[in-house]
């Protein structure tokens, strides 16, 4: 014989009074605002860190402001400038196209900005910060090489004529035989002769380069302001990624 144990039904009045109440926590407006500001700052800081790392260690975009590299690069072309090879110690080669900060003689004595805003501008590239003037040219002479330029003929490196038919616009209309021949109008319109009247041969010093624009006769380059210290290099032109529509020059 089995005995069934009757179920005990809870009293509704009892259960309602003893059951834990569910209270939804509400954030105060002040705490919500604080969390929003904190998350926004975290996002901005992370974005800036990534921007600085990519721009200074990997690649940055630049545009071409003049026709000094025609026909290879035209005005308003956009190029990617890579930094990895420089950080890894990869040597510069003749024919490389590089972006760099020109020597002070070219800018009337002005050098790279030393202010905090100028430094941040170089680090981040943000459009509202100070921008240092940068040039883009082709590497012609490497350290230890002797350079000569013959009007209407071309460039001689260690007495060997460079074959440049594939990229120059015109043959040079100037002669360079000695250091004293280097000179011309800089970006400020001033006439400069960085080596005075020296009769020494044009031999590229250690850790320097001799650079020319592909548009040889419309380019402020080493034939005007001389050698470039390699510490002023920004990076190598790697990829032309945008070109404005229009007729070819």
According to CATH, the homologous superfamily is Umud Fragment, subunit A
Indicate the structural class: alpha+beta
Q: Into which percentage range does the β-strand content fall?
A: 15-25%
Number of strands: 13
- How widely separated are the two ends? 110 Å
Q: What's the story with the biggest beta sheet?
A: 7 strands, antiparallel
Number of individual domains: 1
Question: Strand sequence of the main sheet, in spatial order?
Answer: 1-2-13-3-4-11-12
How is the CATH topology named? Answer: Umud Fragment, subunit A
If classified by CATH, what would the architecture be? Ribbon
> What's the CATH class, please?
Mainly Beta
Number of helices: 5
What Rg, in angstroms, do the CA atoms define?
A: 32 Å
SSE ordering:
HHEEHEHEEEEEEEEHEE
| Nearest-integer average pLDDT | 89
Tell me roughly what share of residues is in helical segments.
Answer: 10-25%
Rough shape?
Answer: elongated
Low-pLDDT parts are 1-8, 12-19
Architecture overview:
It is a single chain. This protein is α+β, with helices and mostly antiparallel strands and 249 residues long. The protein has one domain: Umud Fragment, subunit A. Helix content is 21%, strand content 22%. It is built from 5 helices and 13 strands. The strands form 3 sheets. A 7-stranded antiparallel β-sheet has the order 1-2-13-3-4-11-12. It has a 4-stranded antiparallel β-sheet with strand order 7-6-5-10, with no helix packed on it. Strands 8-9 form a two-stranded antiparallel ribbon. Strand 8 and strand 9 (191-192) form a beta hairpin. The longest helix has 29 residues, at 29-57. The protein is elongated, with a radius of gyration of 32 Å. The model is unreliable at 1-8 and 12-19 (pLDDT under 50).
